[in-house]
TrEMBL record:
Residues at which Mn(2+) binds: E250, T294, D468, H469
Keyword Protein biosynthesis appears in the UniProt entry: no
Organism from which the protein derives: Salimicrobium flavidum
Binding site for substrate: H409
Principal location: membrane
Any one GO cellular component localisation term in the record: plasma membrane
Recorded family membership: Belongs to the LTA synthase family.
Superkingdom per UniProt: Bacteria
Protein name: Phosphoglycerol transferase MdoB
Domain Sulfatase N-terminal: 242-533
Length: 621
């Protein structure tokens, strides 16, 4: 062994150990899926290449510094890997620069950090320790002659070129058309991905400076071509003049609806409510959020633009010009407000709400938060609604008030005394607890509706209940498939992104189940339609869901999409009929291809509006 170590230059040993370890993490912790031999090859190759690039630099250093460099860099590289891993356990996603610089996200991580750090993680640092020990021994350091140094460096460029070429073969236009970070990491590796991310950051920063508004016309043409429809048909004005209470229901997914735990319904109230004669239920409704989680879902509803694929637009572009729902409603003499019992600067809400035109934001400081009425993330939802009612009553009518709930949030912890149903018994504690906080949420919504009735606010109010994003990530697929009794493939995973969307108009009798493929981007035009407000805005990416001509289609933020016939995700086109990948004869294009074009165009246009702050060049009046 000693002999062997002496024969292999230490930087190569460091690269091999690091590459091998990273591959294990990719494959078994990030759970990166492999569909072909080429993909497997790339996945093995890219961490080795990264390791080689990082460590080969050492040979150009003075002998006494080489050991130091190898020690320091192996620790640093492993830390980068590890921080990504902890982040991934919480968000099933990779870190981007904007996310790193929004302090509040760290708060999210710290609140649940102990569930994210595992004892066995120590194993990840084994090679660092090994390199550390060996490199302390002077004999382990090779002194290279200049030609050898040049040769070793040339090998580095060769390796990099091979990696990039293979990645391009595997995924043409990988760098220009990718909204899915897993794909980037899979093909170029975590470290090159971070370099790519840095380049993107620089590029998008420059985009605002270079924009001149000339692109708006092209986007307008695209929207009017793709989304033309009759706004007068449907339920125009069905809730005219009513107040609106919009509840953004934390982490609620459709899969708990009509499900039971040991014979008890998880959401008995919502199960009845969705079938109520006054409730319009969209049972094919998807969240479209990315790294900005709740704030992304808010942004979708308020602006009918897509959130960004990197970072939270609430942080990165809070100063942009928008023409948001609260602004439109303010013009129609609505009082607009938000109720959310968390720190007001979380997700930069205090700044963004001001910009979007909300008249008032009732945040943590407006609530009485005590030890008895709080746990987990803070004030429990039942107390939250109770304490909100007086504020709600004080508002001038008609009002549009958004409530954002908090209790049903990862890691879904509920004091035993507040749980009304049992936990599940799968291998995921997160999922097991999720059903209990889902039940709590269901009860609190029922109580809230009762209070609204008692206070005489029910009749004149339209209620909207919407799930903000998933609560159970891909990380829990095994447990999910145990609970739901089916395998979770890419197709099922996308179906699990459905969240509740129920619109209740008291006394309207308009209750009905709509199975249109719809999403959060459609909320702004849909709500305005119901309120009988005509918005002269040709720059919404969503559509009024009652519009008969609307295309049955929805794009998710990572480029996945759902149409009447297909579901596309992670490069696989699934048939909805079979739930299995579509079989395409060799040489023929996949039926998902035209939709893919459209999705990438649409997401790109929305991004350009935000990165270029293009609405500053447009007059909405
Ligand atoms: C925080 C709450 C939760 O205020 O909205 O945020 P999330 O982690 O779901 O985005
Ligand atoms: Mn949320």
């Amino acid at each position: 062994m000693k002999e062997l170590i002496r024969k292999i230059p230490l930087f190569i040993l460091a690269a091999i150990l690091f590459g091998f370890k990273t591959y294990i993490v990719y494959r078994f912790i990030f759970g990166i899926s492999i569909e072909s031999v080429l993909q497997e090859l790339i996945l093995i190759l890219n961490p080795l290449v990264s390791g080689y690039v990082i460590f080969v630099i050492s040979i150009w250093l003075k002998e006494k510094n080489q050991g130091k460099y190898l020690r320091f860099m192996s620790l640093l590289a492993t830390l980068v890997l590890y921080v990504n891993l902890v982040f991934y356990r919480n968000f099933t996603d990779f870190i981007t620069l904007p996310v790193l610089f929004q302090g509040n996200n760290a708060a999210d991580l710290t609140s649940s950090i102990f569930t994210l750090i595992h004892f066995t993680d120590v194993l990840l640092f084994m090679d660092v320790i090994l390199i550390w020990v060996i490199s302390k021994n002077k004999d382990s350091i090779f002194q290279f002659e200049t030609p050898q140094k040049i040769a070793a460096t040339a090998v580095m460029f060769l390796l990099l070129a091979t990696n990039v070429t293979l990645a391009e073969v595997e995924r043409p236009m990988l760098f220009t058309r990718t909204f899915d970070r897993e794909y980037l990491v899979k093909n170029i590796g975590l470290f090159n991905y971070h370099v790519y991310d840095l380049t993107m950051q620089t590029k998008t920063n420059a985009q605002r400076v270079l924009a001149d508004g000339s692109e708006i016309q092209e986007i307008k043409d695209y929207i009017s071509e793709e989304k033309e429809g009759d706004n007068e048909a449907g339920l125009f004005g069905a809730a005219k003049g009513k107040n609106v209470v919009f509840v953004s229901v934390e982490s609620m997914q459709n899969f708990v609806l009509d499900e039971k735990v040991n014979g008890n319904e998880i959401t008995p109230f919502l199960n009845d409510f969705k079938q109520d004669e006054d409730t319009i239920w969209f049972n094919n409704f998807y969240h479209q959020t990315a790294q900005g989680k709740t704030s992304d879902s808010e942004f979708l509803v308020e602006t009918s633009l897509y959130p960004l694929d990197r970072g939270a637009v609430y942080f990165t572009h809070a100063q942009n010009e928008y023409y948001a729902l609260p602004e439109v409603l303010n013009e129609k003499d609505y009082t607009t407000s938000v109720f959310h019992a968390n720190n007001k600067s979380f997700w930069n809400r205090d700044v963004m709400y001001e910009n979007l035109g909300y008249d008032h934001f009732y945040s943590q400081e407006d609530y009485e938060v005590t030890e008895e009425n709080s746990f987990g993330w803070g004030l429990e939802d039942k107390a939250f609604y109770e304490q909100s009612i007086p504020y709600l009553k004080d508002q001038e009518q008609p009002f549009y008030s958004k409530f954002i709930t908090l209790t049903h949030h990862f890691p879904f912890e509920l004091p035993e005394s507040k749980a009304s149903i049992e936990k599940l018994e799968t291998n995921s504690n997160t999922l097991n607890q999720y059903v209990q906080t889902a039940r709590y949420t269901d009860e609190s919504l029922e109580d809230f509706m009762d209070q609204m009735r008692e206070e005489g606010l029910y009749e004149d109010t339209m209620f909207v209940f919407m799930g903000d994003h998933y609560g159970i990530s891909e990380f829990h697929n095994d447990a999910m498939s145990e609970f739901l009794g089916k395998e979770i493939n890419g197709y099922e995973h996308i179906q699990l992104q459905q969240v509740p969307m129920m619109i209740h108009i008291p006394g309207s009798g308009e209750g009905q189940t709509y199975d249109k493929i719809s999403g959060q981007i459609d909320m702004k035009p849909t709500l305005l339609h119901l309120l009988g407000i005509e918005e002269k805005n040709e720059l919404n990416f969503g559509e009024n869901l009652f519009n008969q001509h609307r295309q049955d289609f929805i794009a998710l933020r990572d480029g996945s999409f759902v149409t009447e016939e297909y579901i596309y995700t992670k490069s696989v086109c699934y048939s909805k009929e079979s739930g299995q990948p579509v079989e395409v004869p060799p040489g023929e294009p996949s039926p998902c291809e035209p939709w893919k074009e459209k999705v990438s165009k649409e997401l790109g246009y929305s991004d350009n509006i935000i990165y270029g702050d293009l609405f500053r060049f447009y007059d909405f009046q």
